[in-house]
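Progress report, Aim 2. The chain analyzed during this reporting quarter is listed below.
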Amino acid sequence: MFSKSILSYQGPLSFSTIDMLLSEFKIASQENEISFKAYKKMISVMIEALENITKYNDQLHCKLTEKDGFCPTCNINSNTKAIELITSNPVKKSDVEPLRTKIDSVNNQNREELKNLYKSIITNGKFSAQGGAGLGFIEMAKTSGSKLEYTFKELKGEFSLYTFRVVLNL
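Predicted structure tokens for the chain:
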């Protein structure tokens, strides 16, 4: 169980917001005596996870005043043994299976297979319509050394709430 909240954000997400969150995490990591090694790893994971939200987010109207505002969230929690990053954002239901397939594929690889998959993707030169080569999930799994966790919860209309979790053991 994670006992301490280090960072919590809910609202619209842009690249300038990501910069602000990275700065806030730097301060929070110093205040919470997180090792530099763990800090560097979490920064890497944060960048990948938050950039995924900005690239692939199909935001419903983000209204913090509504009970179901569907604003993206980012939370970092810690205990004496680990740090966790949890993000959530709405995605189109049509994107659920492709996301599930990508994450499951990464989770089914061991460390050596992840390294080989990374090398293969980075050298094939293929990029998606959103501008990525599909390296984000691989990078987060390599950096964290743990399985990537996710859930999808149906929302109104054509959307699902995608919640993503990565744990870094200290």
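The two ends are 14 Å apart (CA to CA). Helices lie at 15-31, 36-56, 96-107, 111-124, 136-144. These observations will guide the mutagenesis work planned for the next reporting period.
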